[in-house]
Automatic annotation (TrEMBL):
Top-level taxon of origin: Eukaryota
GO biological process: protein ubiquitination
Enzyme class: transferase
GO molecular function per UniProt: ubiquitin protein ligase activity
Protein name: U-box domain-containing protein
Species per Swiss-Prot/TrEMBL record: Zea mays
Lineage, highest ranks first: Eukaryota, Viridiplantae, Streptophyta, Embryophyta, Tracheophyta
Domain U-box: start-end pairs: 6-80
């Protein structure tokens, strides 16, 4: 049965990470080695190590089928004839692989021994191992580490939400420690979930609705709790919020419509707050991407507008210096902000939010033809949406006054995509009669390309 060697990890006990000798199955469906699970229960635990559901010794059932399979796999194998000059000598890389495997096993055992609160250094060590090694990642997922991490995040976020003074004898130190613990857990969750998405063996465990929503809920709760706590630990609180929004970015980017259409309203408020608070440039870009991933669905567009996403995207561009033409993080943030505004303007509330902001039209016009082709396409979409058939006379006058009409005329002269020029030409033709008489618009420029 040579093919059994390829499924070795399926025969391992999630607690000991060794081949099971006497497998027993819990009512939760998880199988353990009897000796390991009995030690776990004897230590005072009353829950399944993987799922966290209640478990007693009497609930365990022998798994005779798996036991026979393990015995077949562990049985004698035909020996291979020794090669000349090196009988039974392992290859040079084998020793490194064995040592690496032992190190990975040690990391997982540390996590499992720590019960509900693994130390931050152990969590970071596990995240590094999961990021670097497919085998380590597989062991941790099989052992239920991801579920335990999410439960830990939920528990800490709940503690922060309660803001019970009994939990904070030294408030600043406690807040900082809590923030570091949250950041380490979220980094490990992201290393396990995101890095494993391309692993065929792990995919079924990582794309289940319950686990994906667990990831989303954990990150959302952390963002909401730390925002409510006023940042929760200064720089450490900001780092934890950045880690949470990175996790949301990764999960929403890989999620399908069935998951995205069930996002909680609190997620949009918490992510928009990251943009508002300028947690960090990288966190801001991640937050904008989360909103972009969600906004193609009409329900989510409405929730994002209600959370103030349009206003914060405009404020972000107002505060930002002109992005360098060569690219970089500032240019990317501008592209993301304009793309978000273009998505939000696909609904009436989004268009109203952009038009209602005192600088909404002006900041979009200012970025047009100054950033990139992608930014130009989004800026024209925003101006065409805000200045569409339902545009009020006040909005049309504002577009002429702040130079948006002139910029749309320049688009027709510039080296832009044909679709972008067509969109600009359409809105100029639509309101040609209004703008041709405006002192803020060149009548010659307006009529030349129409």
């Amino acid at each position: 049965m040579e093919d059994l060697s390829a499924m070795r990890h399926h025969l391992m006990c999630p607690i000991s990470l060794q081949p099971m000798q006497d497998p027993v199955t819990a009512p939760t469906g998880i199988t353990y080695d009897r000796r390991a699970i009995e030690r776990w229960l004897a230590a005072g635990h009353a829950t399944c190590p993987v799922t966290g559901q209640p478990l007693a010794l009497a609930d365990l059932t022998p798994n005779h089928t798996l036991r026979r399979l393990i015995q077949s796999w562990c049985g004698p194998r035909p020996s291979t004839p020794p090669e000349a000059g090196g009988a039974n000598k392992p290859a040079d890389g084998d020793d490194d692989a064995v040592e690496h495997s032992r190190t990975d096993d040690d990391v997982v055992k540390k996590l499992l021994r720590a019960a509900t609160s693994p130390p931050v250094d152990v969590l970071r060590e596990a995240a590094a191992a999961a990021s670097e090694s497919d085998a380590a990642r597989r062991r941790m997922v099989d052992a239920g580490v991801l579920q335990r991490v999410l439960r830990g995040v939920a528990a800490i976020a709940s503690e922060v939400k309660t803001d019970d003074p009994r939990h904070h004898e030294n408030e600043s130190r406690s807040s900082s420690a809590i923030a570091r613990a949250i950041e380490a857990r979220l980094d490990l969750a992201r290393a396990l979930a995101v890095s494993s998405c391309d692993d065929d063996e792990l995919r079924p465990q990582l794309v289940s609705d319950s686990l994906v929503h667990g990831l989303l809920d954990a990150a959302t709760d952390v963002l909401a709790a730390l925002e409510r706590a006023g940042g929760g630990g200064g720089d450490d609180g900001d780092a934890a919020r950045a880690s949470a929004v990175r996790l949301l970015d990764s999960v929403t980017g890989a999620a399908g419509a069935a998951v995205l259409e069930r996002l909680r309203p609190g997620l949009f408020r918490a992510v928009t707050a990251v943009v508002r608070d300028r947690v960090s440039p990288a966190a801001t870009r991640s937050a904008l991407r989360v909103l972009l991933h969600a906004c193609p669905l009409g329900r989510n567009r409405a929730l994002a507008v209600e959370a103030g996403a349009a206003r914060e995207a405009i404020e972000l561009e107002l505060d930002a210096p002109p992005p360098p033409p060569g690219g970089g993080g500032g240019r990317r943030a501008t592209e993301l902000a304009l793309a978000l505004l273009a998505e939000l303007c696909a609904c009436a509330d989004g268009r109203a939010a952009v038009a209602a902001h005192p600088a909404g039209v002006a900041v979009v016009a200012r970025r047009l033809l100054r950033v990139s082709a992608a930014a130009d396409a989004c800026a024209v979409r925003v101006l065409a949406a805000v200045g569409g058939r339902a545009a009020s006379p006040e909005v049309l006058r504002e577009m002429a006054r702040v130079g948006a009409v002139g910029k749309l005329c320049c688009v027709l002269q510039a080296d832009c995509d044909a679709a972008v020029k067509d969109a600009a030409r359409a809105v100029l033709r639509l309101h040609h009669g209004v703008w041709s008489g405006s002192p803020c618009v060149s009548a010659y420029l307006l009529s030349r390309y129409l």
